Amino acid sequence: MAQKLLQALIGDLGVKLDDSRLQELTGFNLVNLNFYPACPNPDLTVGVGSHSDAGILTVLLQDGIGGLYVKKGDQNALPGNEVWVEIPPINGALVINVGDSLQILSNGRYKSAEHRVRTTDVESRVSVPRFIAPLPTTKIGPFPELVARDGVARYKEVIYGEYLKNYFEKSLDGKKSLDFAST
């Protein structure tokens, strides 16, 4: 499913991926099981702070509790002025997030989703994300066809493993990890 979705997204940009490149870009997969206990005062705790995902796509299965928020609008809004929209859980639905790697590959045409998780005072929450990412040795940079059309490369080519190392060395801080690949 993830490879077909990626092919569709990249195809909409006018870029064709061969099977070996597609495998490089989606060859690293990780599934997490996240548990967020209920908190009597959820405003005093954070489930997961503001961040974007490093990989290509994240496929998320939520429970029925809620608590996932996506930053809306101005990505450069000053702290305290951001607008966060809750993504309500829909029974049986999957949430798909674009990750930083797809933002880099698309030369910024697709934007990685800055999001956070809040706990609730109602009951504990569980979510199961599947992270689809490039193999660690894969070079990621804007597709040449897009750079030719845009007239500029908004990101430099980096090795995904090095990007990931930088990503985890920085605390979750919005989308600042993208600075590592910015030109």
Give a written overview of the molecule.
The protein is α+β, with helices and mostly antiparallel strands. Helices cover 22% and strands 26% of the residues. The chain has 5 helices and 11 strands; from the N terminus they run ααβββββββαβββαβα. The protein has helices spanning 2-11, 19-26, 100-105, 144-150, 160-169; strands at residues 28-31, 34-36, 48-51, 57-62, 68-72, 83-86, 94-98, 115-117, 125-133, 139-140, 158-159. Strands 1, 2, 4, 7 and 9 form a 5-stranded antiparallel beta sheet that branches. Strands 3-8-5-6 form a 4-stranded antiparallel beta sheet, with no helix packed on it. The model has no long low-confidence stretch (mean pLDDT 91).
Secondary-structure element string: HHEEEEEEEHEEEHEH
For the sheet with most strands, the description reads: 5 strands, antiparallel
Shape: globular
> How much is the radius of gyration in Å?
17 Å
Q: Return the average pLDDT rounded to an integer.
A: 91
